[in-house]
């Protein structure tokens, strides 16, 4: 009998089935693995549920529980099942699984994956393999000799190659004091090790392109030093994985680009070190983390594209047991089938825009390396065609704290790598709006290449060089106003007039099935708002380090969001992954209506995680005439509950009885409690981060939280208005109100609802 276990919220799913939306051809097949180690599978696919031999696709000896066929299917209805098979004959040794059915529509993007037998058939065995092949290296050298500015080579050479000639070779890091992890040592060491990788990679490339033997020798000095370090010591994956990834990458690039510069003994030394480190990372992802069963391990999934793909390409065919081939096949099939576990074909990324930036940065490198080395084009998949929309609509270039998830920029503008990623997707798709984002962010955020959250992760001069050798320049076009609903992750991003700072408004709303897992937070049914070049309704706090007091006690918690608390409680956001993903939300509607955009989210399950008496927690958003927002909250409970309506801003508010006003540097917003079924609220505000270690935000600005506290009731219906404005707008509004006979000063501190409605109606009609 075949063991066919039940799926869970944290596991991979059986797919496709009758409920699946097929978005690419061929579909991707996944199932839960059996318990036996090294089990192999046979998969059958047929238009006939009887699976007749002559019209059934059989795929035998599959070593993993996910698969992408190497052929496109004709449009129509299909059926599939799998069984455990004999490794020798490929014949089933168990009963077949449940038969599942699906429909392939016509006109889908075609993205088959070459079989394991065929996919490396045309790869060249020579080195280098990463970025340029041996043949392309000759062409590139000739182009640079003819024009040193070719593909920005001269800039890369001067700024990213020559400085390492005079730097002392870095020795093995000392590790943490008493082996206790502390954020400053963690950060400085990953920067140091990233620099070690830069030295190896850039000196090797510089020496090979220019023929400078002294430069090649210096690159080898850096490489052999890294190869001498203990793979299971302080730079091992178990000690700090982010350090291990960087050392492994240094060895991979050095082994590949300095292959012809090493003696047999040196080559064996580097290969052994690289193989040991690659095995350590691969076994963790595949054997320990089991990302093919539990795909929501952020770092293990990231290691596939960040480290394993380049290391295995460099090692392919050079290791005696051919382990690199098995690992590389696993990685390719994971990226072609399971990826991304954090989203779907709409292109969203549940961990947020900052972790999208990081995940895409390494995915792009892996995809480009696979395309140039083996001709495998991951960019044909719908996720990669659409994912540029996620930062475009959820983190505009002029915003800082007006989106969700962990973000290491500490309130700065988006990392320039976000724009570089989007430029890559412009080159892949031809989408000029992605190129516009890249150019606009570079204009707004110049000279930040050396910031720790850039330099510690990537060298932008290398990015520029490698992009221009492989992809075309795309003409920038301003993005259109509108919204995107990222259905797979439960985010909605609104962008109005993004290319016009004087009229730009961003609004991001979230109610996600991923709950607070990984780098997501307890923020279902929360929103952020920016307008006219300034963040207004913000995500509060700082991501100083994972599990810091700021992170655990504030940033991950609902209290730091523009959301509600019920009886003083928010949503579960602690370490239990099962509880975190269960504390979820969902978008019930996201649509354009006559004069407004309408969004509706349901966070009932998220609030029930800490307040089981809650029976309903919904929020509706009305963005009217591209100008103002009406927010309607609906909460029902079995027993009377209080509500605390939270709104975070960068500075204190001016408060009235039912009105509030925030004034920033360039913009501000007015707010009014329009209606509350349970009674009027009490408005208060608090500046600071209660219970957080002050050292976590030393020297950083402190935000303010507005609390609108509503009395206990079993039924709450609350309508709140938010009107963002430019700083030159109040003068015009005051003049208008004076002309109409209203006392503007009184209105903006405390006004009754009838007066408010009359004034707003006249403003809307003016």
In short:
It contains 21 helices and 21 strands.
Outline: globular
Mean pLDDT: 94
Radius of gyration: 28 Å
Tell me the number of strands.
21
The separation of the N and C termini measures 74 Å
Total of helices: 21
Poorly predicted sequence stretches spanning 5 or more consecutive residues: 746-753
Q: In terms of quaternary structure, what is this?
A: single chain
User: How much strand content do the residues show?
Assistant: 15-25%
Structural class: alpha+beta
Question: What characterizes the major β-sheet?
Answer: 10 strands, antiparallel
Q: Please bin the fraction of helical residues.
A: 25-40%
Task: Give the arrangement of secondary structure elements.
Elements lengths: L28 E2 L9 E7 L9 E7 L3 E2 L8 E10 L14 E5 L29 H13 L6 H9 L21 H28 L2 H15 L13 H17 L6 H25 L9 H18 L7 H15 L15 H22 L7 H5 L2 H6 L21 H14 L2 H13 L7 H4 L4 H11 L11 E5 L4 E6 L8 E6 L15 E6 L2 E4 L11 H7 L8 E3 L10 H6 L3 E7 L3 E7 L1 H5 L5 E11 L3 E22 L4 E2 L3 E5 L3 E10 L5 E6 L16 E23 L2 H12 L3 H4 L5 H13 L1
Antiparallel strand pairs: 1-4, 2-3, 2-5, 5-6, 7-8, 8-9, 9-10, 10-11, 12-16, 13-14, 14-15, 15-16, 16-21, 17-18, 18-19, 19-21, 20-21
Helix pairs in contact: 2-15, 3-4, 3-5, 4-5, 5-6, 5-7, 6-7, 7-8, 7-9, 9-12, 12-13
